[in-house]
Amino acid sequence: MLRKGANPMILFKPSSAMRLSPCANTTSMSSGSGSLLWFRKGLRIHDNPALEVASRGASHLYPVFVIDPHFMEPDPNSSAPGSSRAGLNRIKFLLECLVDLDLNLKNLGSRLLILKGDPAEVVIRCLKELHVKKLCFEYDTEPYYQALDVKVKNFALAAGIEVFSPVSHTLFNPTDIIEKNGGKPPLSYQSFVKLAGEPPSSLSTVYSSLPPVGNLGSCDISEVPTIRDLGYGDAEQDEFSPFKGGESEALKRLDECMKDKWVANFEKPKGNPSAFLKPATTVLSPYLKFGCLSPRYFYQSIQDVYKSMPKHTLPPVSLIGQLLWREFFYTAAFGTPNFDRMKGNRICKQIPWKDDDKLLEAWREARTGFPWIDAIMVQLRKWGWMHHLARHSVACFLTRGDLFVHWEKGRDVFERLLIDSDWAINNGNWMWLSCSSFFYQYNRIYSPTTFGKKYDPNGDYIRHFLPVLKDMPREYIYEPWTAPKSIQTKANCIIGKDYPMPVVSHDSASKECRRKMGEAYALNKELNGLVSEDDLKNLRRKLDESEGQEAGAKRYKQQLIG
Predict the structure, then answer these.
(1) CA–CA distance, 432 with 346 (Å, rounded to integer)
(2) 327 labelled as ligand-binding?
(3) Which residues does this entry assign to the site Electron transfer via tryptophanyl radical (predicted)?
(4) pLDDT interval class at 79 (50, 70, 90)
(5) Same structural domain, 378 and 278
């Protein structure tokens, strides 16, 4: 192994404040013995401190990935192909990441060892079977992995196995930020940035080879499975995400992005959400999600571009700013109990959302009757990805904009179908976009008829993802129900038959949503955020009665006119 650059023993000294018990100091790691490297995220060779420590001084290295049925097993009852937790696009992307990682390991004289089952049980069984002295894995802040890691680490320490679990999925250690803030996560971007400072540099390790895989004993090892191996048929899905998984693809995409001057001028929330042939963003989020791309290396690469282009955008709207937003949400999520739900979440407004499965289904299945919204949801289902402004549009529409359905319901759909689905960021963004936390200007709404038109007046995006509307004239493409019957007939699309009528009237629905948000905000303020279940039920009853009275008055008025 060739080595150059900074000493990882200093850069990645494990924090004594991690939620798991303190990691072993890298200087005490045994030499001349076997190491087990447990991959979960962090599916890369570059800037991988767990790999660095696992391989150093080891006689044998066991790089392991466990196929978790929790995420991978087919669910025949799901609304779209995939498991109960992940759509087929994300499963396919992950398998591509694993194939690429296996190839890169083989080029270094190693290989990826694939096992199947409950990850904690499988890893513990491997530790017993392989008689290793070191266990290395990337630290993960998600509750699911926190629980797994406690089991595995407790066994390893009791068995005398040294454990190294570095923070490398994020630029900063969330625990450090929370400690600096007096034990609570900062809840504004500005306060987070002040506390964070500059992140450590990425490792510059270059490997010529890795320690060989040792005797595998009775461990049931396989190659990286295919979609079919996992039990998915060929006809499960007719179109897949155009984005291929893996570290090699991530570094190639990063290199292409860094050559383009637009990186220096990147400014969120600007960008074209309707650009699909060449997306108006980096599309690096799936690679960060799976750890195919190191956030530290990404950060460093952007800074290198900035050095050559002094005139560039700044946080929070710049590309560096977006990486810091990622860190902000990771820290907020890690330090907030019940971050993924409204109930029991101290930073989340308590709002009496509707429990309307029909509206939720229409939204999820792209049958709202609003072409801009439905086209985005079709892209989500087919590609597992859409532009961030497109995500904003459909999230606002489902929650505070039009349908007033609970943000947790939309979160679940995104969590399953997005290839870049990320626990902290997904929950944080849904709270933000529903004005439940972080952002509170609920009067600002993304229009389902005019927002997309600003970027794509001809409706090419809609025509691509909703071919039933491909012949609708441009003046009606965003509101096809307003087209005369003769125009609908000529376009081979009768509204109400070939494409649905709108599920709500946007003008009246958005007005009603604003009223409900105002009432909910007033209740939260009155009770200082301590809103009980009974308080919510009473407010919901009051809002429903008011809505019913308003609807009755409207019907009466229409009868008089008639």
Answers:
(1) 14
(2) yes
(3) 353, 407, 430
(4) confident
(5) no
172-206 tens-digit pLDDT: 999 999 999 999 999 999 999 999 999 999 999 99
The answer to whether the annotation marks 191 as part of a ligand binding site is: no
Q: Is 466 annotated as contributing to ligand binding?
A: no
> Is 210 known as a binding-site position?
no
Residue 125 within a domain: yes
Q: What is the pTM of this model?
A: 0.91
Q: Is 170 among the annotated ligand-binding positions?
A: no
- Residue 217 in any domain: the answer is no
Average pLDDT, stretch 498-527?
A: 97
Residue 172, marked binder: no
Residue 151 sits in the same domain as residue 267? no
Q: Is 269 contained in some domain? A: yes
**Number of domains composing the chain:** 3
Is 404 annotated in a binding site? The answer is no
Instruction: Tell me the Cα Rg of the chain.
Output: 25
Q: Is 323 part of any known ligand binding site?
A: yes
- Would the annotation count 283 as a binding residue? yes
| Residue 4, pLDDT above cutoff 90 | no
Top-confidence residue, 201 or 24: 201
**375 conformational bin, left if phi > 0, alpha if psi -120 to 50, beta if neither:** alpha
301-323 confidence digits (pLDDT tens)? 999 999 999 899 999 999 999 99
84 is in an annotated binding site: no
Q: Is 100 annotated as contributing to ligand binding?
A: no
Structure tokens at 461: 């995006």
393 and 490 together in one domain:
yes
Does the annotation flag 421 for ligand binding?
yes
Flag whether pLDDT at 31 surpasses 60.
no
**Same domain as 175, residue 159:** no
What is the three-class DSSP state of 350?
Answer: coil
Residue 136: domain span:
31-169
Are residue 319 and residue 372 in the same domain, yes or no? Answer: no
Q: Measured between alpha carbons, how far is residue 27 from residues 14, 30, 31 in Å?
A: 11, 9, 10
Annotation-wise, does 329 bind a ligand?
A: yes
Angle at 87 between CA 65 and CA 240, to 5 degrees: 100
Residue 317: name the closest of 361, 371, 281 by CA.
Answer: 281
Q: Is residue 207 part of a domain?
A: no
Q: Indicate if 373 and 404 belong to the same structural domain.
A: yes
- Indicate if 298 and 383 belong to the same structural domain: no
